[in-house]
Amino acid sequence: MNLQWFPGHMAKTRRMITENMKLVDAVVELLDARLPLSSRNPEIDRIVGSKPRVLVLNKADMADHNATEVWKNWFNEKGYAVIAVDSQSGRGFSALEPAIRRVMKEKLERERARGIQRSSIRLMVVGIPNVGKSSFINRLAGRGAARTGDRPGITTAKQWIRIAGKYELLDTPGILWPKFEDPEVAKRIAFTGGIRDEIMDLEELSCELLGFLSAHYADMLKARYKLEDGQLKESSYDLLMQIGKKRGCIVSGGNIDTLRAASLVLDDFRSVRIGTITLEMPE
Ligand SMILES: Nc1nc2c(ncn2[C@@H]2O[C@H](COP(=O)(O)OP(=O)(O)OP(=O)(O)O)[C@@H](O)[C@H]2O)c(=O)[nH]1
Ligand SMILES: [Mg+2]
């Protein structure tokens, strides 16, 4: 896959995030619960430095619940403060404040000892495109303060959102990193819609997804598209053709419209119509 995923505006955003780091008390790093490691920007440790940080596994409603528990334990063992949430329903949000207070403990104690009364905590929310940063902020604020959308690149500039007496939140545009060391990482991000579909080969992408699903979530795949066991053993491209045929993705002359079938499969995955699926597990 040949991708142009690091356009100029991402380099600009990276600079903005670095510059604004000194203004905030802590960082909320949003990860996609379906791909916690692949959705982690490898540059983030350097950018965040020693700032207190809470990891948030967002979109937990779309992920395999058991897998999310495994991931939470994994991050905990590595010494991270981590919570899992669903920014659409608000599930899991009650764990946020205790986690923030935990990572900021020393600073808050120091302030208290000096008699400082703080009115709010400043948080920067960072993460890859489309991971749900703006939705997370809106849920926290209890209002539609930030624009959201079901494709990457919705937020284009920084925006402060204030929650009286509690938080000041800095929403940031999503950023990727200049080079994917591992093509599997790029693929997983693309499955979830973190990379603009316009620059992807959607047939190839959906074949890759079908390959993963038949290996790891065969029952869900079979149920969704009413497939037989034997069909799962076929090549991913044959599978795509089968699905296209069943779903009436036909062009004039009776040929199967594989591009339409590919979009349909990706759309089904992204809308959780195939099921709650996690794309990777700890090593
Ligand atoms: N099911 C589910 N959908 C979510 C969740 N969080 C966000 N979404 C959806 O994911 C899409 C992206 O959300 P945004 O909040 O715009 O993501 P963002 O990280 O701000 O994206 P950029 O500004 O483009 O970087 C939207 O369609 C949201 O409705 C969640 O926890 N669960
Ligand atoms: Mg946004």
Q: Which cofactor or ligand species appear?
A: guanosine-5'-triphosphate, magnesium ion
Sketch the topology as an H/E string, one letter per element.
HEHEHEHHEHEEHHHHHH
Tally of DSSP helical segments = 12
> Major sheet: size, sense and barrel closure?
6 strands, mixed
Radius of gyration: 21 Å
Helix proportion range: 40-55%
Number of domains: 2
Average of the residue pLDDT scores: 95
Secondary-structure-derived class: alpha/beta
* CATH homologous superfamily identity of the largest domain: P-loop containing nucleotide triphosphate hydrolases
Calculate the terminal CA-CA distance, rounded to whole Å. 24 Å
- The CATH class of the largest domain is Alpha Beta
InterPro entries: G_CP_dom (IPR030378), GTP-bd (IPR006073), GTP-bd_ortho_bundle_sf (IPR023179), GTP-bd_ribosome_bgen (IPR019991), GTPase_MTG1 (IPR016478), P-loop_NTPase (IPR027417)
Family: Belongs to the TRAFAC class YlqF/YawG GTPase family. MTG1 subfamily.
Protein name: Ribosome biogenesis GTPase A
GO cellular component, one term: cytoplasm
